[in-house]
Amino acid sequence: MKKTIQILVLVIGGLCQKASAQTITETFGTGADQFSIEFVNIGNPGNAADTTGFGAVSYTYNLGKYEINRDVINKANLIGGLGITMPSMSTVWGNDRPNNPATGISWNEAARFVNMLNTLKGYHIAYNFLTSDSNSNISLWSNGEYNGNNQFRHKDAFYFLPSVDEWYKGAFGSLDGTWYKYATGSNNTPLAVSSGINSGTVVFGKSVSSGPAEVTNAGGLSAFGTMAQTGNAFEWTETAYDGVNDTPSEAREARGGGFSSPLEEMDSALRISLPAPGVQLNTEDGFRVASVPEPCALSLLAIGLGGLVILRRRCS
Fold this sequence. Notes:
Layout: H1 2-21, E1 24-28, E2 35-42, E3 61-64, H2 70-80, H3 90-93, H4 107-121, E4 159-160, H5 164-172, E5 191-192, E6 201-202, E7 234-240, E8 252-255, E9 272-273, E10 285-286, E11 290-291, H6 296-315
Parallel strand pairs: 5-6, 7-10
Antiparallel strand pairs: 1-2, 2-3, 3-11, 4-11, 7-8, 8-9
Helix pairs in contact: 1-6
């Protein structure tokens, strides 16, 4: 019996590891306005922080493989009546391609988008908006509605903007706990490219007029499998720049650098303080979404334990 349990645990662990290594695709809406978001699993829970002091996360979670693109925001506006005012970039870099990152969106608008994802799937909203104005600030959740010291995010939300630690770990961390200087799974200086998915490449150092790459064609992958966490677009995080999520109007922290940024802004040590969360910024700020992982291990463990019960009954 003991040997059977050991084999079952190994099988369950292997299945969960295999599942977590794959891209997870979530679909939202129906018909012509339907859109999908791809996530990758960020494992190694309970890891220590990097030497920068960031990246410690005590739980497993999913992180968007790509930056949210313009097409998704346009469809979300139609589905949810969000009123997100995404500025046209056609006069800046000559086009508004649907797969370009959704830049020029405020933190509040990104948070409303995330709330809609939760609502469409029947989950609790992440952020406490008390008005319908797309750019009004959130209110704090009350005691018992949030976990730890993060009064911005509801504890039962399934989709959310990544905290700075969640974002940092996805960009520069790895499953075995190794930290990297760049979001390419490497300490080697990345190659600047205009687009492409070759290993060790990042979209940076371009002219402003040239614009970003499409989100699915914006550089090599991080060790966990996310694309363009540096380069292409700066990204909002959920976290206030002072690290304490207790003041809704406070400046948020951004990470990652944009497509026209210099090499030093691709470095893991880069920190950016963005203005108040209701401010729509420049052509190079965007965001990606994080989520709670599917309960693979728990589900498979329940199945496995059920099988052991049957086996024990047959053996008795």
